[in-house]
Amino acid sequence: MKLNFKYLIAAGIVGIVAFNSCSKKIDEAYSNPNAAIEQPIEQIFPSLIGSLTGSSSAAGSAYGQCGDALLIGRYIQSWGSYVASSTDNFGGFYDKMAGVVGASDNMGSMWAAHYYGMGQNLNRVIEWGMRDQKWDFVGAAWALRAWTLFECTNQYGEMILKEAFNTNLQQFHYDSQEEIYDSVRIICRRAVNFLSMTGGGMDPTKFAASDFYFNKGSLDRWKKFAYGILARSYAYISNKASYSADSVVKYCNLSLSTNDDNATAKFQSTGITGTSNYYGTARGNVNNSTSGTAIRQTAFIADLMSGANTLAFPGVGDPRAWYLLRGNLYGTIRGFSPSWSTAINPPLIDSLKPESFVGTPYATVGYTGVGVLVPGVLTTNGTAGKYIFRDEAEFPIMTASEIAFLKAEALVRKGDYAGAKTAYVNGIGLNFDMLKTKYNVNIPAGKAIDDAVRDAYLSNPVVVPVTPTAANMTLTKVMLQKYIAMYAWGVHDTWADMRRYHYSDPDPATSQQVYAGFKVPSGVDLNSLTGNNNGKLVYRTRPRYNSEYLYNIPALTLIGAYPVGNDYHTKECWFSKP
Amino acid sequence: MRKILRLLVALSMIILVLPPALQAQQRTLTGTVVSEDDKTPLAGVTVRVKGTRRITQTDANGHFSIQVNAGETLEFSHVGYAPQSAKADGNTVGISLKASDNTMGEVVVTAMDIKRNSRELGYSAQRVGGKEIAETQRENFLNSLQGRVAGITITPTSGQAGASSQVVLRGFNSMTGGNQPLFVIDGIILDNTTINETSNGGSGIGLASDLPNRNNDYTNRIGDLNPADIETITVLKGPEATALYGSQASAGAIVITTKKAATGPGAVKIGVSYDNSFRLIDVSSRIAPLNNEFGIGSNGVGTSSFSATSGTFFGPRYPAGTKRFDNIHNFFQTGKAQTHNLSMDIGFKNVGFKVSGSFFDEAGVVPGNNYTKYNLRITNTTKITKWLDISPSFQYINSTNDKPLRSAGGYLLGLYIWPNNVDIRNYTDADGNKVSVFSSDPYSEIDNPLYNVHQNVSHDKNKRMIFSGGININPFSWLSISGRFGYDTYSADGYTFYSPLSYLTSRAQNGGFGRLTNYWRDYKGYNHTITATAKKDIGKFSGRLMVGQMWQDYRTEVFSITGTNLVDSIGTLPSNFNKLYKNGQIVTDANFEQTVGAKTDSNITRPNTRVRLARNKFGLPNVLNIRQNAYFGEVGISYNNLAFLSYTHRFEEASVFPKQNRKFDYPGMSASVILSDIFPALKKGNVISYWKLRGSRAETARYPDAYKNQSVFVDNFTSSAVGSIYSYGFDNNNPDLRPERQKTYEIGTELRLFNSRLSFDLAYYNTLCTDQIVNQFRASYATGYVLNTQNAASIKNQGVELVTDVVPVQRANFAWNIRFNFAHMWSKVLTLPDAIAYEMYIADTWLYQNARGGMVRGMPATTITGFHYLRNTRGQIIISPTTGLPIQEQTFTVIGDRMPDFTLGTLNNIRYKNWNLSFLWDLKVGGDVWDATDQYLTWQGKSQRTADREKPRVIQGVLQDGKENTATPTANTIVVVPYYQQAYYTGMPEEEFIEHNVNYLRLRDLTLSYTFPARSLSRLGWLKSLALFVTGNDLIVWSNYRGADPTANGNTAGSNGVGGMGMDYGSLPTPRAVNFGLRANFR
Questions:
Q1: Complete DSSP assignment for B317-364
Q2: What number of other Cβ atoms are within 10 A of residue B859's Cβ?
Q3: CA B285, B287, B290: angle at the middle one, nearest 5?
Q4: What is the three-class DSSP state of A307?
Q5: How many helices (H) and strands (E) does chain B have?
Q6: Which of B658, B706, B719 sits opposite A268 (nearest CB)?
Q7: Percentages helix, strand, coil for chain B, rounded to the nearest 5?
Q8: Measured between alpha carbons, how far is B313 from B316 in angstroms, rounded to an integer?
Q9: Residue B538: CB partners within 8 Å, gap ≥ 6?
């Protein structure tokens, strides 16, 4: 009897051990209960849209194209410095095409957007979208991946492609831009394939809600956006033997054709910075009136649009100028000279200096009093932005107008001047229409555009040749009109264009610079501060400091980006080389 | 407090009036003790009547006499001989003792509560008796282990009451994880957490204020135990010993056995004992001297602003006759503490109970620092049948701790730089508003330290219950099954309150208008271990097979909230400066509760300033839950009690890993041979009594923190038409994390000479940790994240330990034992993540300016990295030709190593008649300390370094003139007078404040006790024994350290990796203390 009891207890204990469903209990304790390790992709996707321009999250903000564009915009002389600071990485520094130096994350916003801001978030949208057969999300995510990859490689050159997003690596090798271009094209086609799929777990209402602030759920527009990236990719290798104008035209024809197709980032503008346009007043990136980072329009764009450029559209006042640019005390449109030596760029007198993009007068004192007397001058003092410089303004990522100019350029190169003219006129007209409908805000009285104004401009033979020929349907016209149509928002792609023309390449039709009137810095004006250009123009930016220059040095060394001070930013990218 | 005293007195009275037990008829018994080998008389043999306090020793002729009652048993013991006992029949007795190596009866409690003979062990396991620990009177028993165990490093955070202590066995094996050993009490695992304030932006289980473990301290929870309950502590240092406990014990284990009631025929029916201790504590005499000769100003010109940013006291000398105040003494108080322990044993044939209670209360040397602890413990041992016994126990602990803020912004640095022509005692006005030195703006000057300790208050309360159960079943002679079940739970809550007028909450720092952080923390830990052991002897071989299972489930839940703006505004005009307003009313100290609310209530902060932990926002606690299941086994074979071999294997499954990496296993093996028994010839000549060789090798694994492999989403604030949206946080919580691997081997020998009067235990160990999980290191964003956690580093750790016991005197009335605990360890960082070009550091240790606990490949894990002097290729300091001052190189490079060359604890125990004297000297030689306190004081002009500032001098070095790296550098000849050029001090780099090779010799504990002879107590029949004692703690510290206390720690024990050991920044020195009290046993 006693012995049986012993067995019973022994067996009981063995039983406790055996019947403990330990593995299950262990699995239950695995997941992090404090924060979600999975969220619906519907609620992740909007964050990707935020990263197109400038992200805003509890773990890092301002990743996107806008931050870098503020600096790159100086390379292409869209704007220049308000204060000619003598400090590295500020103001006049980039006006002189300098590269980033020291422990600075300048020019690293796109890098961060691609690898981190969108990064794994985008991977999860694809992964979980595939699992749930939400092809719309998957396709759109691939299109966004193609976009950041393409914009990044044009900015940085070689990038981490094959080893990217491997969470187990500590060092990452760079891949060539040629491979990245190939990848971009593959990804674009993959995106189109997914966007063309139907059925599965797709719910158009849900996708439309997530995509509300970009393409509003239109798969057709997403496809056109992907084709647009393909068009850009074929257009940007214009110096190569492998360049095919037909390929450009083909993808342009598949891409955005009307302003309704425009891929624009939109903003809820609830008053907090995250929901506001990066260039609006709430985020305060362009309305800082006095710091070294404050910007004003340059003479190049002002002259181009006011008719002061003697080489391009001379004497033609562009009606769009009052939409894109800002006036001064005398109600005229003039631009800052970049912070160069005054011998080359004599400074404007103070009263001719333009107000900021959000209406900050050049000098507050004495301005308002005089200014109010002058018609057409806004005295809004930094609160009234126009164009894309508003909290709620749509920020174009790609427009039908841009695609028309890509086509026009290809057709000029092909020798189809009539076709080129059609595309060219279409490009200008689309831009007029976009401004007229989307950006008709804070325009001085009497300066508004209507169809008659547009048509008058388009019928000006200085702008549009009546009979297109090789001599008058020039790359100069196309590229400069494209420059205007992409002003302020298309900084990355305009820079790619200008680099294709090496800033000062001549137009075969005119033997003058394609970018007529664009002053190319040299001598002391080519970054006299640290001399890190070594006499050469800027052709890329260095990768993000706090990612690569601290933690990926061996790989940087291999591509020649390290040690610092070796003018890596002047190294021409593969895409613009023959 | 008073109630407790009254209760104790009442209890004592009850005990006093209990009828004295009847005295039995005693007679005198005499006898002789000889050695069995050569029949020579043995002197100094202890003769004791079993179960009584009657004791005597043999004289030079081996004779003794003692009072006995009929039926009593005599016990004979002597160093080097096997103990013996004999019935006290007749009037004379002749005993012959057999020489022994003293190992036969030595039982060591090892992993899994398994008792093993020390001969068998293939690894080192050092024991400390509970009496020895209790005798030090240290309320956190961990602090008594320093110097008593070779290879243990205890670093208390500060000299404050209730401070946490970092405990590390054999060096630091984990660079960014935990290094503290496992604590096992009677076979169950107990929690020893020190709150880690870091919450990683609210996703972890730290505080909502997400702090770096510097300014506040929380007792490490093992300090809850009542030292008086401890029977023995066995320290299992290497993972060889703990291969069976697995990953949690990869940093070793501290195995504690508690006192239990005795059962059986000889057990006392009822016994009561009481002891107490009253302590006086002083710290002010330990404060390093300051330079108090110069007033506020800069470069010799006086000013009247006391901002306490760099360079405060560089004004002119105080004029003769300036009134001075002894602020140091006016600040500190004499600390007082008292302990009362009462315990009762009730024993019957098969059932025994032990009830013990303890009360401890300390008012520390810093005003406002109070620590109180109540312990109650009930244990039972019941032998149900011959083959079944159980031992349940219950413990309740209640502790509270009021603690002032330390380190940066703490009272100590404030006290050090308080102008000593200003009386520190004048710190508030009638309304409780802060009184500053010069400025009427409360935020422009640092807080008066008295204001700081009284107005910026922090409080913790902890209630803990520990249930444990043991069951032993021996159904057959060859089989034993045992189970140990433990449930350990506590709830803690606390707050930290910053006064709205405190400099620490000024607009520029820490949020404005006061801050209140509250937390509430609940821990529930369950674990059980079930083992079955079978034994079989075949001829001279003995075999043992053990299999077992262990289940662990630990869950911590935390709520925490922090907020600012306790008041609406603070007056700014000169007329109402310092006045606080809330809802239009002026707030004073007196009406604070009415106008603002209780200082403990998180509702007093402004709602939109409140920050909570991630899940707290939804009314749920943040949770950390770790579960682990393990199966293990051990095979042991021994031959003739001479040679022992054992092999263990453990299979684990842990919840912190994803499924594919969740299961892992590792082996361990050990061997021991008794050379002196294998070759008995060795024992000839009576030199070698015992010689054992041992070796062991084991692998184990280490865990990361839970959830380190799951990246989490955080709020995204972009435009959304779908409500809340999310994107990933900074952390790459890598889904592929694997357990870290640790491989260790140890070899050692034990040698006893001259009848064990001299014995040595020598060990060498070597630990290699690979695949180390490095938390939150930065790498390329190409991982998709900013911070990364990966298996990405490795480290090697080695050391030598030598324990030496000497018995110089062993006589009837005079005995003297000495133990030496020597340890020397060294480590080398083998690899770091590839992304780290040079140095990896623990963020918590970046305490002040530009030095931190940085680790570099090829260097020890304990290095300090920081800024240093620019030197030429020959190592000469480069001097600026314009200032005549050295030029700093502002990169983090190795500037010191905190690991000592060696440590040596020397423990003496001297008994003379009824007097007993024991004392422990703790010697540390080598190891660098970053005296950041001195750096702060130097930059402020308060350090003794700045005393001779009027003296012109030329700094030895070479000028930076282009020739500094040539064969003929230009020697510096520029004369500087620091009095006019304070940059001489304020430009000194961190390198200057690394004190190299800091040694100390510290008299840790000294106890003198007197036990009243049984004769003198015989009139008081109810009193079995009575002893009086006086104990001193840290009475003497001799050191070449410039600062106050070389054992400083810049962080709490909650910090990871090496932590803040060897970093002295505003840490209160260890005070000296004297305790006195009595110990009494009642019948």
A1: BPPTT-----HHHHH---EEEEEEEEEEEEE-SSEEEEEEEEEEEEE-
A2: 16
A3: 120
A4: coil
A5: 11, 60
A6: B719
A7: 10, 50, 40
A8: 9
A9: none
CB contact under 8 A, B783 and A50: no
Q: Report CB contact under 8 Å: B716, A37.
A: no
Rounded Cα–Cα distance for residues B663 and B682 (Å): 48
Per residue in A24-44, pLDDT tens?
Answer: 899 999 999 988 889 999 999
Tokens for B802, please give them: 């030598």
Whether residue A50 and residue B716 make contact (CB cut-off 8 A), yes or no, is: yes
Query: Which one-letter amino acid corresponds to residue A126?
Result: I
Q: How confident is the model at residue B295 (pLDDT cuts 50, 70, 90)?
A: very high
- Evaluate the omega torsion of the peptide bond into residue A563 and state whether it is cis, within 30 degrees of 0: yes
First-to-final CA distance of chain B: 28
Mutation site, B631, B725, B737, B773, interface A, largest A CB count within 10 A: B725
Q: Token pair of B31, please?
A: 């006898």
**Closest by Cβ to B203, choosing from A7, A16, A34:** A34
> What letters, b where the CB count within 10 A reaches 16 and e where it falls short, cover B650-685?
bebbbbbbbeebbebebebbbbbbbbbbeeeeebee
CB pairs < 8 Å spanning A and B: 263
Question: Which residue type occupies A277?
Answer: N
Cα–Cα distance measured from residue B869 to residue B849, given in angstroms and rounded to the nearest whole number: 15
Quote the minimal CA–CA distance from A57 to chain B in Å: 4
Q: Which chain A residue's Cα is nearest to B203? A: A34
Contact A122, A145 (CB under 8 A): yes
* Shortest CA gap A55–chain B (Å): 7
* Paired tokens of B623: 């949770």
Residues in chain B within 8 Å Cβ distance of A213: 718-721
The predicted-structure confidence for B73-128, as pLDDT tens digits, reads as follows 888 887 667 778 888 777 778 888 776 655 545 667 776 667 778 888 888 888 99
- Inter-helix orientation angle A245-254/A219-235, to 10°: 170
The ipTM, to two decimals, is 0.93
d(CA A96, CA A532): 11
Cα-Cα-Cα-Cα torsion B84, B87, B92, B97, nearest 10 degrees, comes to -10
Please state, in angstroms and rounded to a whole number, the distance separating the CA atoms of residues B731 and B741: 23
What DSSP string runs through A417-482? HHHHHHHHHHHHHHHHHHHHHH--SSPPTT----HHHHHHHHT-TTTS-SS--TTTS-HHHHHHHH
> Where is B760: in which H helix or E strand?
strand B758-778
CA dist B730 and B310 (Å) reads 34
In the sheet that holds A60-61, the strands lie side by side as A60-61, A56-57, B713-716, B725-728
Q: In B726-746, which positions are buried (b, 16+ CB within 10 angstroms) versus exposed (e)?
A: bbbbbbbbbeebbbbbbbbbb
CB A458 within 8 A of CB A429: yes
Query: Is some CB atom of chain B closer than 8 A to the CB atom of A209?
Result: yes
Amino acid at B845: T
Tell me if B1031 sits within 8 A of B1004, measured CB to CB: no
What is residue B45's predicted lDDT score, i.e. its pLDDT?
82
According to DSSP, the residues that pair with B110 across neighbouring strands are: B114
| Distances in whole angstroms, Cα of residue B712 to Cα of each of A120, B616, B728 | 11, 16, 6
* A172–B782 C-beta distance less than 8 A: yes
Distance CA B543, CA B638 (A): 6
Lowest pLDDT segment from A211-215, B433-437, B559-563: B433-437
Residues in chain A closer than 8 A to B205 (CB atoms): 34
DSSP B464-504: EEEEEEEEEEEEETTEEEEEEEEEEEEEEEEEEEE-TT-GG
